[in-house]
What we know:
Layout: H1 2-38, H2 43-51, H3 61-65, H4 68-81, H5 91-115, H6 123-155, E1 159-164, H7 168-180, E2 185-192, E3 205-208, H8 212-218, E4 223-226, H9 237-245, E5 249-252, E6 263-267, E7 276-280, H10 286-321, E8 327-333, E9 339-345, H11 352-355, H12 380-387, H13 395-401, E10 405-407, H14 414-417, E11 433-435, H15 448-460, H16 464-479
Parallel strand pairs: 1-2, 1-4, 2-3, 4-5, 10-11
Antiparallel strand pairs: 6-7, 8-9
Amino acid sequence: MWRKRSAFVRRLVIGYDAVVSGVAFFAALFIRDWLARTEARFDLVTTLVASVGGVPPGIDPAQYQWLIAGLVPIWAVSFHYARCGDLRLSYGVVALRYLKAALVGLFLFILAIFVFRLQFVARSFVVMFGAAQIIALMLGRIALAESAKFLRHRRGDGHRVLIVGSGTTAVTFSESLRRHSPWAVTIVGFVQLPGEAADARARPLLGFVGSLAGMLDRQPVDEVVFAVQGRQPEIFKDAIAACDERGIDVLLSLPPQYPSSGTVEVANVSGFDYPMIGIRRVPTDEARLAVKRVIDIIGSSVGLLLASPLLIATAIAVKWTSEGPVLFGQVRAGRNGRKFTMYKFRSMVANAEALRAKLQHLNEMDGPVFKIKHDPRITKVGRFVRKTSIDELPQLFNVLLGDMSLVGPRPPLPSEVEQYEAWQRRRLSVRPGLTGLWQVSGRNQIDFDEWMQLDLRYIDTWSLWLDIKIILKTVPVVLFHKGAS
């Protein structure tokens, strides 16, 4: 129960932050309009405004007000991805997350101004709003957190939890619950299993699991947690039935053979009257994944638009200096092994694939990947476009079509996938990317196993902020040709 309530409260906090941001928006608009109207009438204001570059007069506040409709979803997304909805965070951590969310929100706001040509929006207003938003968010969080703390203390014992199990696992769970729960949680006590050695810290110890029904009848209990590992759920059948008859929530621990790093959910499939456990080892936040796809579409579209002169010039150079097609299409393995054609500017001679077998003994990479630092198949123009990563630009079309993402593991050849070890195949569980941790960590200077570990680390720790950091780190890597060959 407290988990669902916590998720609901996080959504409420994000909505609250959006309202606070709206207040900051109108406050910044009022200040900006006031400065524009009073600058010429007050010498002190004129001097102050001039010291920071001046405020051009003549804005129309009515034009700004409809922007709220577009800004609210931007704020909600930025607060969600920055995980600002947790009331348990210290004010220092909250400040950093608000700063991250505000910067992302401002970036998307400025991008919208550029894309939709909102020429009436003054730069001075954007700066004022950014400052006002961060200040308002922190003041709003302090007020909300202190109010929530006061209400928790007034409520008394709050959510009452009974823990089945008296070993180290049960004690560790209870300590984690006391330390991290945003609600007032009371540990009613611990219930021992037959043959279980009770931990000295498992207090109060109420008895054995066989008498659980009587314990539930003698005192109020909101939830029973079976914090036991290595025991099959069948031994808890009567205890679970006792909870079910009384309408008490139950939380079960999975057997140890299930992966602990995955996302676990209980699913009810239509037409199949039996609960099933779902386990996912890939990012599961559909809202953030949708934002990632929107960023891919916008980023690839803007990238193709800005790089169009370079694309045309490179196409002419490739065609002019060597025989063969301008683009090189190669079948690659995408998400979960789906095949797609990945495009690059041709940087090798037309019969490069036929010559690969003769050069296999020169391969400088371990594992199934084939790379040669001074590959004799590369043309003069090809060496330049590979060194500068210009040959990768056509993959923006793959990103736009949805075969790839801006950030993710590099798509391998199907023949390379056939040589993967079992643990290495998990890197195929997400959409491949134009850049990734491998590109910003040394590329050809690291060995194959480390490359695979970097991709798995990206999958396990993925966030929108990680994608942004990788994109920002890719810029100097490309400019200074780090690790390219």
